[in-house]
Design brief:
Low-confidence stretches: none
Helix content: 25-40%
Number of domains: 2
Number of strands: 15
Distance between the termini: 15 Å
Radius of gyration: 19 Å
Structural class: alpha/beta
CATH topology of the largest domain: Quinone Oxidoreductase, Chain A, domain 1
CATH class of the largest domain: Alpha Beta
Amino acid sequence: MRAIQINNNHLQIVDISTPSPQKGQILIKVAAAGINRADLFQVQGKYPYPSETNGVPGLEVSGEVVEIGEGVSRFKLGDKVCALLVGGGYAEYALAEADLTLTRPENLDFLSAAALPEALATVWLTLFMRGGLKSGEYLFIHGGTSGIGTTAIQIAQIFGAQVIASASNAEKCAFIESLGAQAVNYTQDFAARVKEITNGQGVNLLLDITGGDLVEANLKCLSYDGRMVSIAFMRGAQTSANLAGLLMKNISWQGVTLRSRPVAEKAQIMQQVQEKIWPIIATEQFKPIIYKSFSLENAEKAHISLQENLHIGKTMLIMGT
């Protein structure tokens, strides 16, 4: 099969053996794959990949089941699915754990379905399972026009949260507001604006991808007993912030990652995604936002596009099926 591998910090197409599913796995003929920041970090050598992926990036795909491993009864040949992977999605065929695979929503095409697994699993884990988001609470999301951000804005509002999200320019802020959230520009004094929007209260939960020099401002955004969940440090993992607010406002701050979790834990997350969000997708209250799609041959251009931070929504690879 054709697949993408990393060679000297660049992506190139190679011919490698098509994998065979082991116990509990299925083989998917890939129709589309989502591109995530973790893939970019993998190319840069900052995010080691599991050996079983043969160095092929890609954490989520959609496609058709073409082979089934021992012990799998949930799926049959020809089923249309989408799956969360440990890697290996930038290829014509990808192995997936059956427990991390869901049937493709009937009202979505393969491209949209491939944008679901990583974003929805991350949003459900961070906002609800770990963040404890409740109806009526204020939620602040950094990176509101990212794949995670556009997903989190929609899902949080559906579950009754009042959402504020950040972006870097007027165009992106306008898009955030088109989704029903209030927008703030994080290059300005966003903490003051958040306090204004919340009538001085601050937000109950903050989903952060920034870190670095914005940590102190993030803490200022939070209410008493507020919670902050960090899933990335786009502005660096080092900070010289004054952390007094952690104590004075009784703030809880936790780091959350998805990829390194055991399959059993991810399976619980995906089961909840299926139970809580799949019915919402069927009613079309939520729909993934797609920015651009690229062919497998243009995978490196897709990565460059994501690095330029011009995107609104998910950047995708499509295999042409």
